[in-house]
Design goal:
single chain; 391 residues; alpha/beta; Rossmann fold; 6-stranded parallel β-sheet; 12 helices; globular
Amino acid sequence: MKTVGFIPVRGGSKSIPLKNIKKLFYRPLLFWALDAAVDSKLDEVYVYTDSNEIKYTVEHDYYTLEKVKVIDRPSYTSTDTASTELGLLDFSERFEFDNIVLIQATSPLITANDINKSIDLLKEGVYDSVLSAVKQKRFLWQLNSDNEAIPLNYDPYQRPRRQEFDGFYVENGALYATKRENLRESKNRISGKIGIVEMDEYTYNEIDEPSDWDVVEKLLEIKLLKTYKKAISQIKLFVLDIDGVMTDAGMYYSVEGEFLKKFNTRDAMGLEILRNNGIEVSVITSEISEINTSRMNKLNIKQLYSGKKDKLSVLRSICKQKGLGLHEVAYIGDDINDIPCLCCSGLSFVPQNAAEEVKKYADIILNHNGGEGAIREACNYILKINKRLED
């Protein structure tokens, strides 16, 4: 039974231009939903878009592309008045699947577990379709034809206490799952016997208007820090940036181009000691530089990922390849494109001279500057923490 994920994204958002690739907590909004889809039981994930810019961003910046496919979206499904169902039906004409999970990019708080629950409910055969919702314990009212307020879900003369009130479910728009035959017959995202995947209350928020952006971004930041900082674990992988971490962030140019960078030999010895203690080392950098490649070859670091703008998708892919959890990773970076990795790693460092807005996301602010012993200092921390946990 083939289950696919379907993420429709338009380039023509009116409220927030190119909303789906606008940076939310330092990476494109769409990437947060993609993370959940990639980690889930979905067999394939389709990003359905009419925008060449969105297509380019996913294909070039999102690293984990094993089961992610970007496909063209016809113009008639991309107008302001077109329903999502038009896109779903177009997709069902072009691709084979048994079940489909519609995932909204504007719900970046969705998790792989939420998606998996919807898949399981469909496969159990009890439900024909599933939607995500959050439970709300609010008292609802409406106005009648005389503008008189009428209670909808409780008796004001017997007001229940919160703990005794069952509440009600509200769609949060994060996902909808259905069987292929139901979709084609009903021409609707949900039909037949409908089940609910209950998501955390804070996922009630989704991004539709500019005012939603700051709220969801803060919720996402809190979620990341709480998820990955629960307890210190044995560190099995050390991941680092280059410029500003292994170097002093200086780049020396001649008329022919990049000419010199300064590295620290004591940092190199620290990395060698880590590897001698069974801790692997990987490097992720947004720069493409022959000097960086030459230096990593000299250090015998085989895993160098160059030119990677979205470092978190690379980090997650490395962990999958090695069978590691993010809590088993130590990460060091110095600028805002490192922040998602700093938040998601089990242990995070920044050099003393890191950008000020980055420091608040690090577990440890090192005493040394980048290129002046920061790496060696971080290596010593990792060895001490692992030894302490062993003891």
